[in-house]
Amino acid sequence: MKAILILNVGTPAEPTARGLRQFYKFFFSDPFVFDMPGWSRWLLRNFIILPFRAPKTAKDYKKIWLENGSPLKVYTEELCENLQKSLDPSKNRIVVAMGMAYSEPFISDTMSRLQRQGVRDILILPLFPQYSTATTGSLIHGVEQAAAKWEEVPRMVMVDDLYSELAFVNAWASLINKHLPRDNPGTNVEHVIFSYHGLPEKNIKKADENNYCEFGSCCDVISEKNQSCYRAQCMQTTRSIVAALGWREDFYSIAFQSRFGRDPWIQPYLDEHLIQLAGGGVKRVAVATPSFVSDCLETIHEIGIEYRKLFIEHGGEELILIPNLNNDENWFSAVVQIIENHLNA
To answer: Does residue 344 lie within any of the structural domains?
Structure first.
């Protein structure tokens, strides 16, 4: 039997301080995410995050919570259900499963269930378009740890570089066209920002085995030297989507969001970039977030609420957050196409 394993980071089970503490207990324990000594993570988690950050963030989650739960989990579940229904039934039986890093269903539990079901081959789809050790690397490590406990380790193949899949690019281009029509995308906005989740610069440099990274023009082209670089993959994602849209270069830009702590993160920072645009007379902007596939706190609340307010406070008039792929039909079709291509490879 074969399985399709859909991976994501996870989400709080409920928008409460208790729910956030349970989620953060796992999230802030991950050395792939927080590259610091174990005792430092323990202090950060137990003396700052759990007592202070959890209650505050719970209030933010309540603002984005859907009727059936967290957007990230709701849309991931819909994706799995759609994929299960869409796979060719004439082929050998294939089960679609979901595994989360920091919440139920945990990767280890999902892998145990697949073992009991007699799965021998697993095609893994991490829902992170661009690779980083903090996301894809961490989750794949969890899968490998769980698989090592099987009596017979399953054959595992991963869908690499989702950002480079033509179906993914076209799904994003189609989605953006729904909100910014192709015939005149500047009618409602003057500028579009492609915003990606940030990473500390030290994480990029640590993964740079070729000492190639300069946080600049080194990301202009994907090559053997930077093909695994998160920043380079983000830049290429934008170039691919913009090429599909046929936009001119001065109509869009790239920025990074969600930085945490005092260390320098990859730039430009989205908040500072918005202030700069507003100061330069730009009144109406749109933001697309192709480092995510589902809307979450970092898109709906951070950009749609906090950064919209920031932009207006500094002279802007309107910030449009383009919804993520979520449960868009073209995205569902893209995933089916990507999976079937890899199953037939």
So the answer is: no
- What's the rounded Cα separation, in Å, for the pair 204 and 249? 26
Helix (H, G, I), strand (E, B) or coil at 155: strand
Pairing of strands 155-158, 121-126: parallel
Task: Give the span between the Cα atoms of 299 and 331, in whole angstroms.
Answer: 18
Domain end marker among 139, 160, 181: 160
- Which burial class, exposed, middle or buried, applies to 251 when counting CB atoms under 10 A from its CB (0-12, 13-18, 19+)? middle
- Residue 56 to residue 50: CA distance in whole angstroms: 10
- Pairwise CA distance, residues 299 & 152, whole Å: 41
The owner of tokens 């099987």 is 150
Six-digit token pair at 60?
Answer: 């933010």
Residue 330 is predicted with a pLDDT of 97
User: Within this chain, do residues 148 and 204 fall inside the same structural domain, yes or no?
Assistant: no
Q: What is the mean pLDDT of residues 300-312?
A: 97
Task: Kindly list the distances between the CA atom of residue 31 and the CA atoms of 41, 42, 57, 259, in Å, as whole numbers in the listed order.
Answer: 8, 11, 22, 17
Q: Which of 42-46, 101-105, 114-118, 292-296 is least confident? A: 42-46
Distance, CA of 328 to CA of 325 (rounded, Å)? 6
Residue-level pLDDT at 167: 98
Asked if residue 313 and residue 174 are part of one domain, the reply reads yes
How high is the pLDDT of residue 38?
84
Q: For residue 339, tell me if it sits in a domain.
A: no
Q: Give domain status of residue 343, yes or no.
A: no
Domain assignment present for residue 293? The answer is yes
Range of the domain at 212: 164-321
Among residues 160, 187, 216, the one where a domain terminates is 160
List of residues 6+ apart from 135 with CB closer than 8 A: 9, 126, 128
Q: What are phi and psi for residue 127, nearest 5 degrees? A: -85, 50
